[in-house]
Each structure stands twice: as structure tokens, then as C-alpha cells.
Design brief:
By secondary structure, the protein is mainly alpha-helical. The chain has one domain (about 5-405): Amino acid/polyamine transporter I, CATH 1.20.1740. It contains 16 helices and no strands.
């Protein structure tokens, strides 16, 4: 069997690694637990709506040989400044949210200590060293292993859940009502499959992939690579909703805001319903889900901030990536010292911020990919343009709706 196509994959799997995290393990599982299969419509629509804007990242990068950030600068320096401010305002909260969930799972799976802050420090240091020593090449190789492991362990868990399920399955779709349910829906959509600024990360990874391999930019291959990662995120999103619906729906369980307690509840609920022998598969699925997000976000935000700073100052700084990754790591740990018992609130803040900034990135990516800065050959098709415009209206409409019910 020829595995060359698999070796060529890279940024698309990094997208999957960044996307399949809190949105899947926490939000998708909670969606299934609270609404059964009733929010599958939201899962599918948000993937469709966000698809063009994510895809424009690697499309632009490989069509032009530069990142979306270079393109944003061509649209005007104020655009790049706005990106810098938005990213700076959200990156610490997002990193803290994914790290504390990973820490909670590590504490339950590996023991040693139940202090989530200590585990957060350990995980952050491990990720930091992997990225500094191995750089993009190690991240690229590591993500292939993680995504395959995650997919297989999740499929096994869902298969057992379906086999053991004795209750009738309802696929009646539900429209949430009331401020609490609507607030959850917005948070669910905010990070599903990922915040739209991940498109910027995608473009940076696509450029880095070409540097590592030393090959010419291949836009078709890049879009194929992205589609593999995107389909994986959608498939696993459905899997985690299914696990929540099959294992937790009508269980009467109330989830804790504490990272340690939440992780324990999650693993125990699965093992109690699927059997103790499934603990290893649930544990692997849950931990790899969160570790992949933690390491990719720890790489991506500093990479994006480094590039933005270089472009804004019209100067290249040799150790700027070191500065930003250290700054993010220290800032993340600092936040967790104060918010370690409020994981739920932390995640809600991060997801809602991501949702409210989505129209900004959607409009920027659409304008850039349709502009003179992108070769005509790689402009979006009429269908893609229509889908993009519908997506922009959807994201703006949902943001306005949410702000009116606050």
C-alpha cells in the first residue's frame, strides 16, 4: 500500500489537531448529554458555513507563497493591527481553557498529583520543549500519530456505545429556547469546529510545510490536505455528540466547573456505561483530543503573533517566536492560578469571544481570496462565493442575535 499521500499530509492534520479539542470533548459531548442528537443540525450547518473561510487559508498560502497575514497587510495596515489586538485579547484565554481540560484528564489518567495547575505547568513545559526542540517537523509528524490514535480509539468507543445501547434513538432536531440554552448554542457554534482565526494558522503551517519539504507550492494538494483534516473534524464531532447522546443523555448528571472533577465525571460516565475495559480507550481518546489542541495552539498563536509583529514593524526579529511562545506559556499559567476552579466559565468566555470575532475573519478571508492579491486561477468558484456570502450573513446574524439576548 502506497503511503506517500499520507506523508504529504501536514497542515490539514494540524487543523484537525487544533480543532478537535474543547469543541469536541466538552461542547459536543455536552450537546449529546443535554439534547441527545437534537443539535446535529447545528454541528452540520456550522461546518458548512465556516468551510470556505478555513479553506481560503491554505488556498491563499499555496497560491501566493505567503500567509494570510501578508495578505491582510496588503488590505491595509489597520486590518493587521486589528488582527494583532483580537489575537492578543483571546490567545491567553483560549490556551488556558484547553490546557486546564488537558490537565484535568492527565490528573485522572496518570495520577501523580490532582492539582490541575501543577499538571498544567507540566503539560505546558512538555509542549514548549517539543516545539522548541523539534519545531514544525516534529509537530507535523506527531500530529499524524495523534490523529490516527484519536480516530481509532473514538470509533471503538462509539461502536461499543451503539452495541450496548438499549434505548430508542431519536434524531428529532431541537431549537434551543431560553437564555441558558441559547447561550450554550452560541458557545457550541463558537468553537465548532474551531475559531475562524485558525485559518491564519493554516496558512502559516502551509508555508512552513513547503519550507520543510523544499517542494514547490501545490494548491490542489494543499486543498486536498485541508479537506482530509476538515472531514476528520466533522466525523469526530458527530462521534462525540453520539457518545454524549448514547451514554449521558437523561443520565441526570450535572457537570462540575472543576477541571479535575469534570474529567473524572466524563471518564466515569463512559466506563460505567460502556464497561471498565473501555476506560483505556476513553482515556486515550479524551487525552489525545486535548493534548493535540494544547500543543497546536501553543505553536500557532506565537507563530501568528511573531509574523504579525514582523509585518507591522517591517523588520525580522531572530528570536521573536521564542519570545511569544514563552510569553504565552507564562501568561497561561498565570491565568490558571486564578481561574483553576472555573473551567466552565473560562471555556464559555473563550468560545463566545471566538464566535463574535468570526465575521471579522470571514469577511477578511473572502475579500482577500477574491482580490487582485490572489492569482485569478485560484479565486473561489461562483458556488463557493455564494456559500461564503451566506456564511458571512449567518455569522453576523447569529452574533447580533446573541448580543440582543445578553
Amino acid at each position: 500500500m502506497n503511503l506517500n499521500w499520507f506523508k504529504k499530509l501536514g497542515p490539514g492534520l494540524l487543523f484537525a489537531g487544533a480543532a478537535i479539542g474543547v469543541s469536541h470533548l466538552v461542547q459536543s459531548t455536552r450537546s449529546g448529554a443535554d439534547f441527545g442528537f437534537g443539535l446535529l443540525w447545528a454541528l452540520l450547518i456550522i461546518h458548512l458555513v465556516k468551510y470556505p473561510f478555513f479553506q481560503f487559508g491554505p488556498r491563499y498560502a499555496t497560491a501566493t507563497g505567503e500567509s494570510l497575514l501578508d495578505g491582510y497587510k496588503k488590505l491595509g495596515k489597520p486590518v493587521l493591527i486589528a488582527y494583532f489586538i483580537v489575537t492578543f485579547a483571546t490567545m491567553f484565554t483560549i490556551q488556558a481553557a484547553v490546557t486546564i481540560v488537558t490537565a484535568g484528564l492527565a490528573a485522572n489518567l496518570f495520577g501523580i498529583t490532582t492539582n490541575p495547575v501543577i499538571w498544567s505547568i507540566i503539560i505546558t513545559i512538555i509542549c514548549f520543549l517539543l516545539l522548541i526542540i523539534g519545531k514544525y517537523k516534529l509537530l507535523d509528524s506527531l500530529m499524524k500519530i495523534i490523529i490516527v490514535t484519536l480516530t481509532l480509539s473514538t470509533i471503538i468507543a462509539v461502536s461499543v456505545a451503539l452495541f450496548k445501547n438499549q434505548n430508542p434513538i431519536s434524531i428529532t432536531q431541537i431549537l434551543p429556547k431560553g437564555s441558558v440554552e441559547i447561550g450554550f448554542l452560541i458557545a457550541f457554534l463558537g468553537w465548532m469546529p474551531a475559531p475562524l482565526d485558525v485559518s491564519v494558522w493554516q496558512s502559516l503551517w502551509a508555508v512552513e510545510k513547503q519550507k520543510e519539504t523544499g517542494t514547490e507550492f501545490d494548491t490542489k494538494q494543499s486543498i486536498f490536505d485541508f479537506n482530509i483534516g476538515f472531514i476528520t473534524t466533522l466525523f469526530l464531532g458527530v462521534c462525540f455528540v453520539s457518545l454524549g447522546a448514547l451514554v449521558m443523555f437523561n443520565s441526570g448528571e450535572t457537570f462540575s466547573g472543576s477541571a479535575i472533577t469534570f474529567s473524572q465525571q466524563l471518564i466515569n460516565l463512559y466506563t460505567n456505561n460502556l464497561g471498565e475495559n473501555m476506560r483505556v480507550f476513553i482515556g486515550i481518546a479524551a487525552f489525545t483530543t486535548m493534548f493535540s489542541t494544547t500543543i497546536t495552539t501553543l505553536d500557532a498563536s506565537p507563530r501568528a503573533m511573531s509574523k504579525t509583529f514582523d509585518l507591522l514593524t517591517v523588520k525580522s526579529y531572530k528570536n521573536i517566536y521564542w519570545f511569544w511562545i514563552s510569553f504565552l506559556a507564562i501568561g497561561t499559567i498565570s491565568i490558571l492560578v486564578f481561574f483553576m476552579s472555573e473551567m466552565g466559565s473560562l471555556i464559555k468566555i473563550a468560545t463566545i469571544l471566538s464566535f463574535l470575532t468570526a465575521p471579522f475573519f470571514a469577511i477578511l478571508n473572502f475579500v482577500l481570496i477574491s482580490s487582485k492579491h490572489t492569482p485569478k486561477k485560484w479565486h473561489p468558484s461562483v458556488k463557493m462565493k455564494v456559500l461564503s456570502l451566506v456564511g458571512i450573513l449567518f455569522l453576523i446574524g447569529f452574533s447580533i442575535w446573541y448580543l440582543t439576548i445578553l
